[in-house]
Amino acid sequence: MDLIGMAKGAKGGGADKYSELIRSGQLQKALLKAYKEPGGGELTELDVEFFLNPKSIQVVKSVSLESPQTEGHTKETRWKATDPIRLTLGELWFDTYEERTSVRSRYIDRLEKLLQYVEDTHHIPCVRFVWGQFTQGTDQDPGYNFYVEKLSVDYTMFLPDGTPVRAKVQLDLKQCQVIEDEGKRKPKQSPDHAKLYTVRRGDTLQGIATVEYDDPREWRRIADTNGIDDPMSLTPGIKLLVPPIIK
């Protein structure tokens, strides 16, 4: 039986089996490393280290697509943006039965603080999930910073005085990478030379800026370079000069 099975059925002696598996060193500890903000200072007091044998870890990567109006009956599908990665850690078990202490005070309260607003940063903390070989190669990747979007807790064991000593947890994480970080990790397509872009029906300056610079906010750079007064009116077939971003 795996750790989850033991945890589900652990009563009395079952808890001893749960702890024995941990003490044996067969399980790799996991860590939620907390930071004030992406690339910011550490929040060591909010770090959560725990033994992990999850029922599942779901990683979702997706993109946003658009289908602008074109001539004819066939719509052209284009990439619009890459969505933040979503990571779901399902059925995590936290146990303080042997210590006879509150699992809520030791673990859950700290997890709840990861969803609380931090005044000096004006948003919630971000975390980096690190767990042995699973995150090997990603735990140092700045793109793998996450916000805890949802925390679900099911308390499953209590002491006679009502102290919770076992909890089943699900964590839903959402990538918190900012545009500036994306630009550092993924250089712009036109960093050091100008290029010509042929306008297609349905194009917008924001869409062109997204394709060429990975940043829709750079549409003004293209508009100014080409003397465009009305960014909503682009003539299919014309060529636009896409200037380089020189820093």
Task: Label the structural class.
Answer: alpha+beta
Distance between the termini: 58 Å
Q: Mean pLDDT, rounded to whole units?
A: 79
Biggest sheet details: 4 strands, antiparallel
User: In CATH, what is the class of the largest domain?
Assistant: Mainly Beta
Ranges where pLDDT stays below 50 over 5 or more residues in a row are: 1-18, 179-188
State the total count of DSSP E strands: 11
Percentage beta strand: 25-35%
Q: Please estimate the helix content.
A: 10-25%
* Shape, principal axes of CA atoms: elongated
Please indicate the count of domains: 2
The radius of gyration over CA amounts to 25 Å
Q: Care to describe what's here?
A:
- 21% of the residues lie in helices and 30% in strands.
- The protein is α+β, with helices and mostly antiparallel strands.
- The strands form 4 sheets. The chain has a 4-stranded antiparallel beta sheet with strand order 3-6-9-8. A 3-stranded antiparallel beta sheet has the order 2-1-7.
- The longest helix is centred in the N-terminal third of the chain and has 11 residues.
- The relative contact order is 0.14.
